[in-house]
Amino acid sequence: MVASCVALAVFAITALWPDKPARAAARDGEDDVLDYASPLEVLLSPDGARLYVLCQQSEEVRVLDATSFAVIKNIAVGRVPRGFSLSPDGQRLFVTNSWDDTLSVIDTQALTVTATWPVAAEPSSVVVDRAGKRLFVANRISSDIAVLDAQTGAEEKRLVAGRGASYLALSPDGSRIYATHIYPNPPPRRTGMENRTAPESEITVIDAARAVVVDRIPLHAIAGVFHVAFSADGRLGIAAELHPKNLIPLAHLEHGGAFADTLMLFGADVGKPVEIPLDELERYASQPFGVAIALDKSRIYVTSGGSEIVTVVDVPRLMRFLHSRPRPESGSFAQDLSASANYVVTRIPVGRNPRGVALSRDGRRLFVANRLDDTISVIDTRANLVFSTITLAGPTTISVMRRGEQTFYTARYGFQGQIGCSNCHIDSTFDGIQWNLEPNGFGRDIVDNKMLEGVKDTEPYKWNGGNPNLPTECGPRTEKYFWRSEQYDNLTLADLAVYIRNLPTRPNRWRLPGGEMTPAQERGRAIFARDVDKFGKPISETNRCIYCHSGPKGTNQKLFDVGTRKPTDNPGLLKSAPLTEIALTAPYLHDGSARTLEEIWTVYNPDDKHGRTNDLTKDELNDLIEYLRTL
Amino acid sequence: MKKFGMIAVFLVASVSSAAPLTPAKAASAMPRMPHFRFENFTTANGLPDNHVYSVLVDGERVWAGTENGLAVYENHAWKTYTTKDGLAHRAVLTLALDKRTGDVWAGTMGGLSRISGGRIDTYTQLNSGLSNDVVYGVSVEGENVWVATAAGGCRLNTRTGQWSLYNERNTPMIEIWTYGVSATPSKVYFAVWGSGLLEYDQKTGRWDKYDDPDGENEIVLFKDQGLIHEITTSVSYVDNIVWVATYFGGSRYDGRYWHNFLTKDSGLPSNFINYIKGVDASRAWFCTDKGLAYYDGVSWAVYRPSLTTGKPEMTVRDAQGKVAPVAVTSAPAHNYVLGIDFQGDDIWVATAKGLSHGIRQQK
Q1: Does residue A438 carry a pLDDT above 90?
Q2: Which pLDDT belongs to residue A578?
Q3: Could you report the per-residue pLDDT of A257-296, keeping only the tens digit for each?
Q4: Which phi and psi (to 5°) does residue B245 adopt?
Q5: What is the 8-class DSSP label of residue A467?
């Protein structure tokens, strides 16, 4: 099939439809799932001749001519690819397939997959060291960096990274690898106030030659750190990040009341790491994700997935700002919404949900992957304008699911375009943060944010069961508490609810193939299902694990008092929480006060109201948890 | 016969071994035992506490587990991690290094902490599958961290996050007070206080138990027929040899024969051994309540402040049992020795009154 051209800003090119035919599978009769390309990342070959596009939904790498944008080849890879990078000689392209835990190795001459290596849980990003000997892979679920032999894929070791390790960058001199993560690290100590402290994140610094962690740059009050980039001289590093303001009631969205969208700057140019906002009063750069620095260090480019823009920062002006202003003790200018006017040159509108970026070698073109409209924006960096939009081949109709996803990721409905659903539900999951959602006072009714996958058929929603269905949860409630701006129309709201209801559940990494269980999981299942305690006394029906956590999602959808309410909670019962993917979603309980599954019972169940557990030995409790991880 | 055979094995092993410390030549008139100049660290020069329970060498860095925090010596300066940094408890009883990743594992009186690139993650009996917060021993083997606690042994699989607990319900352990652990890809040994030595075969998944054939008698009826005593305090498995410390002497086991060490027939300065660390199949260091002892397979050397005068003292005992003093000008900080680690030819020694750096003297 030959590409067809469609005029957009200047021109656009429709690429070849992938080899894999379109899939149209009905889901509960509610919608069709179409194979959109969903470009997530872009990469240029070392000679600048080719543009590699990582297409997450069609599960391909599409190879385009970087000048004509003609399709050279579409290469099928594994499930839900999330990151890719080239070997130093450009001969091999490594792709992380996040949902089947593999790494595809592509020969860039033959443009074929030459190997598929098993890696760890949810590989999300990969870099190769300068010598081409080792691969470093960031694993989101296991929260580590796997070190692999670049020739064989054999795993040498894993390094502890931040929670939800996701993005990697090699320093220009090749000596260091920098890793970021999307969920905050768990609080190190139990203080009783874990759910009321600011999130802490880090940039993990790895010595590339020794493959050991040598430093961790602390990121205070940050949760959600994405791409990292360096200036060519290695003196300036930047990371795109979210700065949630979860310690104050979310009733107040004015003046960046929910999030600051920021960059963390580090390196010799700035001394101590410093956080700068991209937002300005009444104009926000929601959900910063992709970053690039011009070769001459004149500009920084940042995509904002929610605001659907690329923010252009003038680096010399930024340095003047930093060196002329007293540095706040916190090292952060995030609260200063007047700051960005000092260094933001412009905000360039691009496509829907822009993510990864690549800068051409001459610095004149910036490629931006617009994930939710299957386009690549090509920005003329001298004019700061989109001069071309490449349309990737794919379904021409916009499905209900797609519209719902677009609504989910955009910040356009939020008050002053400040936030979208995906601010708190990063990549449609959760954020690991406890929020003060109710406008009834500081520190009241704290709620832990929850995973959205598997949310279908677990109504009512909210921890107190106050919302009977998703349209209520996403409609009036969201509009009241979050958006305070534009209402969804009925169709938009329906699309959004359909999208959320049909979010697929990722593979469970604790389950054995074929549904078998380890001995510990079997023992744990028996404890979960037991009706008699270890002293032979019957456990009342409502105090058995399996009663409240029954059914395919691990909830009977009813409300209970399990003794976990706090004096700061509003009166009422709490909904039995679904157990789907429970291993991934720490912390626990309605307010996130239990840092781990263990603490649900070792700390917060003194009276056996949250199930009969105090007769269990430590090894039996461990078995119960091993079972829960399989759900 | 058995004893004669053991000695012969020791002689051969000591001559052929090539490890950090050069063994003495059995043929020489006076054994040439390693000679050190000790530099001692206390609160006066940067340690957070003089009670040093454990020491760990990681290249140029030296970690000291003290009663008041975990101290690290790097670039001639001490830095201390405390509970404010996330350390499980201020009293750090044991340390282990994951040589692949550089992570340090610290067993404390309030849980287990991992120090990785400056970040501390803590595992306790409340927030994790750790069986008990009092952690006496820790050992890293591949992706597994083996832990000796006051309520049995544990294994944390760092990849899966799964905890496996070992206690009286699933091992031959009678007491569950585990004092030390030494893990390798083939075997894992637990020193169980009052329950001898426990062996786990990694290949078969089976447990075996070694007891004192004299039972709990403090009289040694059959000296080399088994473990010297049930009250084991430390174990070190190196080159397929198990070195075991007890409060009533030391033992060496090669998988077939036992050889035991008592003050009355060896160079041990005391039968009360807090910690033992094998260098290789024939050489080991014994940390006792009356000084630090080194055994090279034939001869012994003891390093300590004199028990009577407090002056630096080194003695050497040859194969015939002849003891001779060696003139020294320095000694470990205290006689009560709790731990040792090696830095090339140097040693670092944890004592009840400071940390000592033994700098090897070549002449």
Answers
A1: no
A2: 95
A3: 899 999 999 999 999 999 999 999 889 999 999 999 999 9
A4: -105, 140
A5: B
Indicate whether A251 pLDDT > 80.
Answer: no
Name the pairing type of β-strands A12-14 and A385-391: parallel
**Interchain proximity B114–A160, CB inside 8 Å:** yes
Confidence of residue B360 (pLDDT cuts 50, 70, 90): very high
- Residue A329 contacts by C-beta under 8 Å, 6 or more apart in sequence? none
Domains detected in chain A: 405-501 (1.10.760.10), 513-628 (1.10.760.10)
Q: What is the mean pLDDT of residues B257-267?
A: 95
Residue A620: list chain B partners with CB under 8 A: none
Peptide bond into A587 cis (omega under 30): yes
Closest CA to A72 of A108, A39, A42: A108
Q: Which of B126, B162, B169 sits opposite A626 (nearest CB)?
A: B162
Per-residue buried b or exposed e for B262-286, using 16+ beta carbons within 10 Å of the residue's own CB = eeeebbbbbbbbbbbbbbbbbbbbb
Distance CA A371, CA A354 (A): 6
Phi-psi region of A394 (alpha: psi -120 to 50; beta: other; left: phi over 0): left
A58 phi and psi, to 5 degrees?
A: -80, -5
Q: Are A598 and B129 in contact (CB under 8 A)?
A: yes
Q: How many CB atoms lie within 10 A of CB B186?
A: 12
Selected residues 8-27 of chain B with any CB under 8 Å from a CB in chain A: none
Contacts of B167 in chain A (CB under 8 A): 619
- Chain mean pLDDT for chain B: 91
Number of domains in chain B: 1
Q: Alpha-carbon distance A428 to B312, whole Å?
A: 68
- Name the nearest CA neighbour of A481 among A430, A433, A432, A421: A421
In order, the DSSP letters of B291-345 are EEEEE-SS-EEEEEE-TTT--EEEEEE-TT--EEEE--S---S-S-EEEEEEETT
pLDDT of the residue at A485: 63
Strands B92-97 and A385-391: unpaired
Burial of A572 (0-12, 13-18, 19+ CB in 10 A): middle
Q: Quote the pTM value.
A: 0.91
Residue B8 has pLDDT above 60, yes or no: no
Average pLDDT of the residues in B69-95: 97
Answer whether A240's CB lies under 8 Å from A302's CB. yes
Number of other CB atoms surrounding residue A468 within 10 Å? 12
Closest CA to A615 of A512, A519, A536: A536
Q: Hunting for tokens 């004199």 — which residue is that?
A: B306
Q: Is B119–A602 a contact, with Cβ atoms under 8 angstroms apart? A: no
Q: Phi then psi for B188, rounded to 5 degrees?
A: -125, 135
Q: What is the rounded distance in angstroms from the CA atom of residue A296 to the CA atom of residue A508?
A: 45
Higher pLDDT, A301 or A27: A301
* Lowest mean per-residue pLDDT among A74-78, A248-252, B158-162: A248-252
Pairs of CB atoms within 8 A across A/B: 84
Give chain B positions within 8 Å (CB) of A190: 126-127
Using an 8 Å CB-CB cutoff, list chain B residues near A596.
127-128
Give the strand pairing for B61-66 and B69-74. antiparallel
Of A411-420, B132-141, B158-167, B322-331, the range with the lowest mean pLDDT is: A411-420
Best probe of the B interface among A191, A213, A588, A614, by most B CBs < 10 A, is: A213
Q: Is A192 an interface residue toward B (CB < 8 Å)? A: no
Q: Give the range of the structural domain holding residue B23, as residue numbers without chain letter.
A: 2-361
pLDDT-derived band at A481, boundaries 50, 70, 90: low
Phi, psi for residue A90 in degrees, rounded to 5 = 75, 5
CATH (domain of B19): 2.130.10.10
